[in-house]
Amino acid sequence: MTQLKHILITLLVFTTGIVSGQVEFKANVSKTTLGINERLRIEFEMNKDGDNFNPPDFSDFNVIGPQQSVSNSWINGVRTFKKTYTYFLTPTKRGTFTIGQASITIDGQVYKTIPQKITVTAAVDKPSDPNDPNYVASENIHLVAEVSKTNPYLNEAITVVYKLYVSPRVQVDTWNEKDSPRYNDFWSQNIDTQNQRVQTETYNGETYRSLILRKTVLYPQKTGKLNIEPLVLDMALRVPTNRRDIFGNYLLTRVNRTIAAGNKTIDVKPLPEKGKPADFTGAVGDYSFDVSSTKNTLNAGESLQIKVEVKGNGNLKLFKLPKVSLPSSLEVYEPEHKENISTNLGGMSGNVSDTYTVVPQYKGKYPIPSISFSYFDLKSQTYKRLSSDEMVVDVKEGPLNNADAQAQNALNSGAKQPVMLNKDQFAFIKTKTNFVSNDAEPFFNTRLFWILLLLPFIAIPIAILIRRNKAIRDADVRGNKIRKADKLAKKYLSAAKKSLGKKEAFYIALEKAVHNYLKARIHIETSELSKDKISELLRERQVEPDVIKDFLSIIESCDLARYTPMTVVTMQEDYEKASKTISLIDKQAR
C-alpha cells in the first residue's frame, strides 16, 4: 500500500511538471480594424523567459516601443511567470496588412507567434487612444441583443436574449439597468434568468466572460418594420492602464460607463389572405383540438360539462376558442376559461380550454353539432382546420317539453279515463279545539326578565365608550399611518422572512415583495421602470432621499445576490432594511 502511494505521488509530480513546463508564446492585438487616425496596441506574451526576441517587421506602421514587463507570482506553491513586450502602432496608409511572426528562443528552441491581419479604414470622427480608460472599457465590454428571427409572421414567437460580454482584462464592480425596453408593438413575457451563470465564450475572435441578463419572448401584434428598443446598463468598471506596479502588473483605474444593446428592427410579415377561413381568430402555431363531454346519458335536472380544448405550441393567449352551439332546450351557463401555459425560448406551450355546464330541462335526445377550429401552421405556412365529432345527449327521465306533451295528449285523447273520488272529499270540519292549559310560573318577575330589561341600559354606556375610543384612534393620523405601514411591511415581507437562510428563495421573495409593494402603493409596474424612474416617482411623492437610497439599495442587493454569495447575517440585514424602508415610504408618500 505504501509503495503504491509513492508511485502515485511520483506520477502526480511528473504530470504537474509536464503541464507547468509547457511553453506559450503568443501575440495579442487590441483591435483588428481601426481608422487611419487611430492606433493599436500589440503585446507579445510568453510564460517562460527566453533570449533573442525578434519582433516582426512593422513596415506599414509607425512604431512606439517596445515596453517590457515581467511578473512572477506564487499560488499554492506553483510559480507563474509572464513576460510581455508591448508596441503601439500607428498606420501609415489605408488597406489590409499582416503583422508577421515574432520569434524568441526558449531553452534552445525557437518559438513563433501567429501572424495578425489588420484592416485600416478611413479616418474616424473620434480617434481612440488605447491608453484612454474609456476606450479600453468600450473595447473590452459589450452588451448584445440576439434576436432569433428578423422576418417573422404576425403572432409568430421570436426571442430576444440580452447577453453581456466582459473581457478578462476588465473587472466589473457594480451594474444596474438604466433603461428597459418596453416592446410597445409586441405581446411580451420575460423568462426567468436568475440561475444563469457566468460562461466563457469567444466573441469577435477573442475570449470573453459572458452572462445572460434577460430573455424575452415576443409575439408581434403589427405588420411591417417594428423596432425593439435597447437595454441600457450603468456599469462601474476597473480597467488596466499603461502604468505598472513593482511586480510588472498593470495598474487598474475605475471607469463609469453606460452601455446599450443597439436597436433591432424586425420586418413582420402579414398572414396570407389566400385560404384564410372565415372563422379564423388569429391562432398561429401547431395545435390539436378536442371537444369532450362528461356524460352522454342523464336525467333532466342533472348537469354535464362540455369541454372545448386546444393544445400545442403557439400564441395560446392571443386567440379565442370557438363557441359551442346547443339546442335551446338545454340550459347553458357561461364557460369557465382555464389556461395551463408555460413560456420558454420556443414560445408558449400548453393548453387552453372553455368548460360549459349544461343542464337539460326536458326528456329527449339532443344533438350537439360538430365544432371547428382553424389556425395558421408555421411549418407548412398554410391554414388548417380541425373539427370535432358530432355528439348526442340522451335525457332519459324528465318532463316533456310543450310540443312533446301536446303530442302525447293527442295520443291519449281517444280513451276515456274514469274519475276516482276520494272518500274524504266531504270530511267533517272540526269545531272544537284541544288546547291544554299551561300552569307553569309566569315569565314576569323572573331573572331572565330583569336581565333583558336592564341589558339596553348597560349596553348604551359600553357603546359610547367604544365609540369614543374609536374617535380618538381615528384622530391619531400619525399613529394610524404607522400601524398601517408596519402591517403592510409585514404583509409583503412574510414570504421573505420564511425563506431566511436560503439565498435564492429569500432574494426572489424579497424582490417580489418590493415590486408588489410599489405596484400596490404607487400603482406602477416596476418591470417597466428603471431605478432612476422609480427614484423620480418616489421624490414626487415627497419621500426623503435617504429612504429612496435605501430602497434602491435593496433592489440592487436582489440583483447582486444572483451572482455573489450572501451570508445569513447579510440576508437578515437586508430583510430588516426592507421592512424599515417600506414602513417609512408608506408613512412619507403623499
TrEMBL record:
Q: Which key words are in the record? A: Membrane, Transmembrane, Transmembrane helix
Looking at the UniProt entry, the stretches that span the membrane are 448-466
Please give the PANTHER family that the UniProt record associates with this protein: BATD, PROTEIN BATD-RELATED
The name on file for this protein is BatD family protein
**What is the species of this protein?**
Gaetbulibacter aestuarii
